[in-house]
Request: fold
Amino acid sequence: MATEQSHFRKEQREGLVVITVTTPRLIDQDVIQVLERNLIPVLRQGKRLVVALDLSHLEYLSSNGAGLIMLCKQSVVQNGGSLVVSGLRPAVLELFSLMRIDRIVRFFGDLEDVAAAVAAGENLEPEVQRASKPAPASTPALSVESSAMLKRPVHTGSAVHYINDPTLKRIIRMWTRLPEETREQIRQLAEAHAVPS
Reply:
């Protein structure tokens, strides 16, 4: 049974909750805030949920839209569940890879692939997470003010990209607007999923 909400649809399928984002662009802050207000409570309703976030309608997203995806992951994981993403279009997949979301969230081609993985009892975490060791407790948090970040290469397949100054400024602005409790939760999530360099 599917229920339609503002910019998303929720339905139950064979052992998983499917959330289909119905908006084609996650760039408008108003849309992102409406989604956050309506979607996060849905994700926090059950314990140990397996959630498939169907993004097959999504054509583009901003860094704030990517932040919403990470908030969804965090909300599900805090309740002992798993969140995976399915149906990514090539342009969105490339953005997710550039932002390294592929190291935190596992991607599937479509919902049938997700259902098959759940039915087979597969680990739903990304390969990078399963292969990595947790970071030592003494590892310092990365400082976003570091000018070295501007020159740090980001590898995506055969291409190398550099984080540019406007992107870093947007990330810093978004980070400083978050409540301290949320920032701490994100730090803990990042430390739990740290990949050794």
